Every structure is written in structure tokens, then in C-alpha cells.
């Protein structure tokens, strides 16, 4: 594909990926940048007022200002999020496809479930950031009220119908982890693995001997919030009793509620922090407390990129990767012992951190998305050939 005759694709997403304030935005931003190395990419999204610019000549954005949300959209049949976020974008998507777009990449399956049937694009690619049916099921199981449980259960049941159909309709699906790849293949979808990449930190230092436990997340997200509450209730007290001066730093939106719930000064919550480098540098270990949810936790990859071990409950094992240094991911039901051991055995901790340094350089975003990018370009080129166009 020459720079003068690049295929044109749309990347449809609920919000601007710039600035990448959370894991979902970061993944879409990296996917857009990777595709822009070989394709002309137009990112179509709703405007939230915090959209940022970028300087890639092969990457442009189209923001749709009005969402026109219907409170009852998707209640009975389709994915509610698809109705809410894809419907307002549909006129602009249709216009761009008519103007010559060679394919559409949907950033979430719920967007594709709404859009694939309504837009006659040459090629449809879906990034399965989550398996929504599994995510909704975990929400239903953890819901605190009958109303909430019923609502999430309805979304789960609907997703068991629309999600497999959507995967099969796609020309290509991107899976974020091995578990999700197994689900996609079980439903006869054409799929390629596209893990979250690691963005190597500019400078990575060994963890200090008296470093703290660090947790970074959006604490308004229910699986994160409930996981942290359980950690504070069952694990942190024991850690405090066995490790003198142990500290827990909780960074992210809505984190202050955890510090308020603890009666001593061992837990601090500075809120949202734009630059985490200093916090990672002064930490000893990173906690990922979620016990449910879906997809992959980008903050795990971020912790490894800063040379830090990640600990958490058994659910965290879904983040395991081939070739990851032993001890870099500790997913266990005996979380208290693991945290205590990691804080106190400094030499073992430093050995794992040294091994992580080499691993990170081999698993950047470019490396992790490379195979997926090849497949995306192949299906787009195939669609162009089917229409009698020269993809080169």
C-alpha cells in the first residue's frame, strides 16, 4: 500500500480516544495510531467536550455533537449501549461510507451490533474490548439490589443472542486475551489476538525497600470498587498487622471513599493523577483487586511497563501472558500472604523487576497489535479486490 493510495477506514467509538484518560480510550488511541501507519483512518465519535488533537497526517477525527439519547433504547431487544451511542453516529458513518470508505472498525461489539446491520460497508472489523455477555453476567451476580440485578441479567440474556451473531457477521474480530479468543472461536468468528501493549516508561527504577502498595483504577466502575472494598475488609488489616508501616495508595476517580472508610492513616487516596510516573517509582507492588468484569485491565500492562509486580485475586489470572517473567503476576485467593511476602522479600521483588525490563521492550503496542494490523489490512484489501479496486 503506497502512501498515495492508502485504503480508507472508519474507526467508530463512543468517545474521543484523546486524551487517553482511561484504559478504554488508551486502547482505541493505540489501535488508531497503529492502523494509521498503513491506512488512512477517520475516527468517528460523539463529542464530550474534552476532545484533544493529534498530529498524524493519516489520522483525522469527526466529532458528532448531539447524542439524542432515547432512555428506552435497546431495552427489549438489542444492546442498550449500542442504541445509545451508535444511533447518533449512523448518519455520519453512512455519509463517509458513501464517500468511499473501504471498511469500518467498530471499537466495541455493542456498537457493531447496532451498526453492521444498518450500514452496508465493504468490510466490518470489530474490536472485542469485552465479551459483553460475560461482563453483564458478572455485574448481575454482584448487584446489590433486585432492580439492579434484574437489569444486568436482562442485558446478559440479550447479549447471549446478539453478541455471537454480531461476531459471526464480522469479516474480522480482534480478541483482547486468550479467554476471549476461545469464546470468539467457539462462536465460529474469524478472530486474531490483539493484546494490550506495554508502553515502556522513560525511566524505570528498582522499587524502594519501603515502597507502598499502589492501586490505580476508575473506582466508579463497580468491579473495581467492590474488589477494593473486599481487599480493605479481608486483606489489608492482616497486611498492616504483619508489615510495620505498610501503606496503600489508591489513585483514581472516586477513590477517596476508601480512605474515609479506614480508621488510620495507612490508606491515602489523592484522586485522579495525570502523571503516575512518580507514584509507580515509589511503589513496591501494584494491586488489581477486581474479581469480575470483562476484557483486560490496561492498568496491569501499565504496571509492568513501570517494572512493578501485580497482585490480585484469582480473577487476575486472565491477564497471564506467554513469556511473562515468573512472579510478575500473582493471582491468588491467599492475597494477604502474597502482599506481605512481596513487601518484605525485597531481593526477590527486585529480581522479578529486572526480568520485567527485558519483557516490556519485546511487548510494546506495536508488537502486540502487529498481527492484528496485518489481518485488518488483509481483509480491507480483500474487500477492495472484490469491488474491482486496486488495494496497492
Q: How would you sum up this structure, described in words?
A:
With 392 residues, the chain is α/β, with parallel strands linked by helices. It folds into two domains: 8-197 and 365-386, Rossmann fold; 212-361, Rossmann fold. 43% of the residues lie in helices and 16% in strands. The protein is built from 14 helices and 13 strands. The strands form two sheets. Strands 3-2-1-4-5-6-7 form a seven-stranded parallel β-sheet, sandwiched between helices. Strands 10-9-8-11-12-13 form a six-stranded parallel β-sheet, sandwiched between helices. The radius of gyration is 22 Å and the shape is globular. The model has no long low-confidence stretch (mean pLDDT 91). Keywords: Transferase. GO terms for molecular function: transferase activity. This is Sugar transferase, PEP-CTERM/EpsH1 system associated.
